[in-house]
Request: fold
Amino acid sequence: MKTMNKENNEIVFKVEINEGLANAIRRYVNQIQILAIDEVEISKNDSPLYDETIAHRVGLIPLKMDGKIHEKNKITLKLNSKKEGYVYSEELHGGLDVVYKKIPITSLNKGQELVLTATTRIGTGSEHAKFSPGLIHYRNIANIKIPKNCLKEVTNSCPKNILKIKEDKIVVEDSEKCDLCEACVDFCKKEGKDLIELEPTKELIITIESFGQIEADEIFNKSIETLKKDLAHISKNLK
Reply:
């Protein structure tokens, strides 16, 4: 395993792993338990949006997960806004913080007011998208074979710009950027030349994107942990 890029809410790494296992880990992201707003009680709403729309928007605001939070916790957040202009997620106050403070909820004119109380619960992304912690996606690293009679103009067909001409030969500058789009293959077909061969290798580039409730590396670890628990449960029942 080799880390290729790591940012605040994203990790990209390459690893040799079975695609079936990688896909199982990807799918189990939506089995991780995440805290989100589940119920919204609106006392006053003078904004142009219906109560249902306000509740939907508030429910999708990501919340920072505390290590002490567990399934039985129900945390209350309150919002009371009278100011003219946009009402943002940062105006929700209570037992925890929102991940992004400038998510617009609605807008108010002078003299208007929005008052609501939101209650959280633990859930999974398989129930509702608001409980999803992020995304995992992957692709194969390609092995690119270029025939001798390939036209040099094929370098212009690659959207990733990884085909270069060096010493009068076509070379692959960075095969890890290839996403197997086959634009170069299509070019060869049109010109009636031997086709460039794109072969997916056993090595995958895996990208993990976090919505902010938990860190990207924690998403990967928790997804594996949850998958292991289910597999152990199945194994126990089979015995």
Notes: The two ends are 34 Å apart (CA to CA). The chain has a mean pLDDT of 91.
